[in-house]
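Troubleshooting: if your tokenizer reports a length mismatch, compare your output against this known-good record of 503 residues.
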Amino acid sequence: MLSADHQKLYALEMGIDTHQEPVVFMRADCNVCKAEGFTANARIQVVADGRSIIATLNVVNTNVLPKNHIGFSVIAWQRLDLQPNDLVHVRHAPTLTSMSAVRKKVYGHQLSAKELTAIIADISAHRYSDIEIASFLTACAGDRLNEQEILALTQAMVACGQKLSWSDHQPIFDKHCIGGLPGNRATPIIIAIVSAAGLIIPKTSSRAITSPAGTADTMEVLTRVNLTLEEMRQVVAHTHGCLAWGGAVNLSPADDIMIRIERTLDLDSEGQLIASVLSKKIAAGSTHVLIDLPVGATAKVRTEQQAQRLIQLFEQVGAASGLVVRCVITDGSQAVGWGVGPVEEARDVLAVLKNLPEAPQDLRDRALFLAANLLSMAHNKPIEQARLEAEEILSSQRAWQQFKMICEAQGGLKLPLPIAEYQKTMTAQKSGVLVSMDNRRVARLAKLAGAPFSPVAGLRLAVKIGDIIQQDQILLTLFAASKGELAYAEAYYSSHLDMLLIQ
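Known-good structure output:
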């Protein structure tokens, strides 16, 4: 083994984007690499001026990397806060004892609160590789976490990040939709309504996991969502609400790391789902939470039985965590609204808030129903009475004025909305009645068009279940930022025509 001085190398930024996983590059003939026995894909610790990261090693067999240098991917360079030619020290990464608990779960054994806390602490500190995180998520998938494990996981995820605190004298409200419905962008409308009614609702939202857009993705089209904690406080103090990206304020940071892997795996398991949702709500300082569970054959929750199981877990874990949780089951048979993808969903949100004639009625009704539930929770009034209050706030333009005020407080309302350069209408090949819509395939179609990474990408539906369809009638329009993505989506649609089933 080399001495400490000989383990030092000069830092070089390679400009290689490895997303959020730190990667370093060393020459195959590097003395340090050979003396330490480093091999490709090894996990090594890199230290610079008291700062350190755990990174995955890639071995370079060409002269692209100068001798006595170590290359860094973009995220590795940023996390170590390096300058060109800084001297860094490299050594084997310390053993992760929490990985033994991951292996224990792989074999189907129950994990203790201490074991789950250790795993989450290591994940939030970026000590796990993406492969190791994927192993943990897969081991916990399905119903492999019991109630005690879900509670422990939730509390561990809260403990690893910051926690907001608000007034001690007022309840703090929040809502979450389990998802699985393309275009279901009711949250901005709900926040506008209930904050206009005086409820305090500091909404932090995730970006898309397996969908073509999350609330944060759609809101980013309309205003700034990367708010600091202090900025969130200022917005809420001024407007009673906000619509921010949770990842920017370090609430349950382990959840954001795991969401990135879940997106790649297209995985959203029961225990992780509950822990993810409730940890964010607890960290955001919420006291009362409304959970929307859309149920449908191609939604995330497919059966009433599965919904009731989730409701039981949400309420039990919520109560054990000091939250008042109300769960409601909604229709998950088809996409909500007309647009799917950040910009197109934002278009629907604005249409509902402005009470425009083209506003999608189903999105409006869903937002009013959920807003009524929050008002009912707040004031202990019947849903019917709360619904009338919500309708008055929306119809009178108070919700639209409130939404504009929130956006201005967050950095300004960004209008007009951008338009995709490439578009393609898809038409019916026969006449009949639209009898079903495959939510998963509709979502995949929008994603193949480029959503959410291209905000203008996605699709716009022109029909709903039950509509009478004529041959050659427009069913949907595809939007993309490039010809290639448009062609990719068109090809997928052509091979899955039954995603909009006409009989």
